Amino acid sequence: MDKILKGKAIAVAINQASKALIEEFDLQPKMRLIQVGEDPASSYYVQSIIKNAAKLGCAVELMSLDKDCSQDELLRIIKVANSDPHIQGIMLQKPLPKRFDDSLINISIHPDKDIDALHPLNLGKILIEEDGFLPNTPAAVFYTLKYYRIDPQGKNLVILGRSNVVGKPLANMLLWKKPYANATVTVCHSRTENLKEICQGADILISAIGRAHFVTPDMIKDGVILIDVGINKFTQADGSISYVGDVDYDACYNKASALTPVPGGVGRITTSLLYLNLVRASLIDRKVNKNVDEYIDLVFNAKRKK
Ligand SMILES: NC(=O)c1ccc[n+]([C@@H]2O[C@H](COP(=O)([O-])OP(=O)(O)OC[C@H]3O[C@@H](n4cnc5c(N)ncnc54)[C@H](OP(=O)(O)O)[C@@H]3O)[C@@H](O)[C@H]2O)c1
């Protein structure tokens, strides 16, 4: 097993699987990407989604809404996209302004076009282990384990963070009765007592809390596998700004048997999973019943043989 679990090779492999599916089924995947306001970081991400989609043969139709637009206006636009036969996937650039009711908006997206897996129906499918859209960040963790053949079966796997977008769906995925799951999962949060002791018992520790350098060597056992989902703005000693994970990477490096870098780890994979979900939505639209994971397994196996 590699010590540094980089995301790039996984992202490339997932894109290859998407491309193979697009070509085999002659798909023309199109996404309606909705952005409210013009936050510079969001706009940068939106542009990269558009640029990289074109390389795969996916189209992205951006709809930029004024930052003062009403919730009713957003709901109306989602409704139009839901019934547009040329749009297979809908993605809302988050975060939305705080005045919006996230639950109401998530439920307004048609479940078959819900490529960010926000709709309760799609989150519920994860719980009962039914095939469907997976939220991108938990899926990025799952495919990291799969690509590097880290099987969590029977292992003590600790997740830090219980958000609806990362911690909770990920915990449920890793409880699935299938390869690269079957873990014994513990989820910690801000009210957890003895968090340090719980982490010390982890064979695999996944952190998704959003606290720079939170995980330190005294919290982990020798040989642990560290998966870092956190992305945190950090001011270095010289005053420069960089982005770091939740794990104190340098300090934990020697004690861990493998770990994901930030940047370049889990976060590197998420956009390719968004396109994969768009391809999934296009297959649903065509009423093609295909297990997308079979394609991913083929590409992963071919890449590992090289
Ligand atoms: N790599 C990617 O592509 C990607 C995607 C999404 C998010 N992220 C990053 O992942 C991190 C988490 O994102 P999120 O959206 O899940 O965050 P979130 O909604 O803020 O949830 C954070 C979770 O961490 C818990 N927590 C916070 N401080 C804690 C502490 N001191 N001890 C124990 N638990 C603590 C919170 O507990 P409570 O529930 O008790 O409040 C909550 O469950 C952020 O850094 C975010 O930027 C990365």
Strand order of the largest sheet: 5-4-6-7-10
Order of helices and strands: HEHEHEHHHEHEHEEEEHEHH
Detail the poorly predicted runs.
Answer: none
Write the CATH homologous superfamily of the largest domain.
NAD(P)-binding Rossmann-like Domain
The backbone outline, from C-alpha atoms, is globular
Name the structural class: alpha/beta
Radius of gyration: 19 Å
Q: Which percent range fits the helix content?
A: 25-40%
Regarding quaternary structure, what we see is single chain
> What is the tally of beta strands?
10
Describe this protein's structure.
With 306 residues, this protein is an alpha/beta fold. The protein starts with 7 loop residues before the first helix and ends with a helix. Helices cover 40% and strands 15% of the residues. The model has no long low-confidence stretch (mean pLDDT 96). The site of NADP nicotinamide-adenine-dinucleotide phosphate (NAP) has 25 residues, from loops.
Brief rundown of the structure:
With 306 residues, this protein is an alpha/beta fold.
Question: What's the arrangement of secondary structure elements?
Answer:
Blueprint: H1 8-24, E1 30-36, H2 40-56, E2 59-65, H3 71-83, E3 89-92, H4 102-108, H5 120-127, H6 136-147, E4 156-160, H7 167-173, E5 184-188, H8 195-200, E6 204-207, E7 225-228, E8 232-235, E9 241-244, H9 249-252, E10 258-259, H10 270-285, H11 292-305
Parallel strand pairs: 1-2, 1-3, 4-5, 4-6, 6-7, 7-10
Antiparallel strand pairs: 8-9
Helix pairs in contact: 1-10, 1-11, 6-7, 6-10
Bound molecules: NADP nicotinamide-adenine-dinucleotide phosphate.
